[in-house]
Amino acid sequence: MANSNSFENEYSQEVKRRRSFNLSRSRIPVIIIVLLMLYISFSLGSRFDQLNAMQQNLDAMQAEIKDIHNKNAGLYEQLERLQSNDYIEQEAREKLGLVKPGEARIVTIPTNDE
Length: 114
Prior knowledge:
Keywords: Cell cycle, Cell division, Coiled coil, Membrane, Transmembrane, Transmembrane helix. By secondary structure, the chain is mostly helical.
């Protein structure tokens, strides 16, 4: 019986060792934490890439808006100039050959020296 008692003691100690899971000695929490940190790092990295791409797109759009505003301002200046009386008078004299009342138009005739 002593032999069976020692066998039972050894068996019960072996069962206790197998059953007792020591979390502080296990590598599983460390592996889980490392994997979690890697996942978070990759997630944040991809988000920062997306944010950077959106910022570049925003900068390009703002530059395009600035160019369009400058072009629009130039067109308004041209419109103001084209609607001015001085421009209309100049075009009427040059293209239509009109003169003001009391003025005489002088037309030069090319000579044939050949």
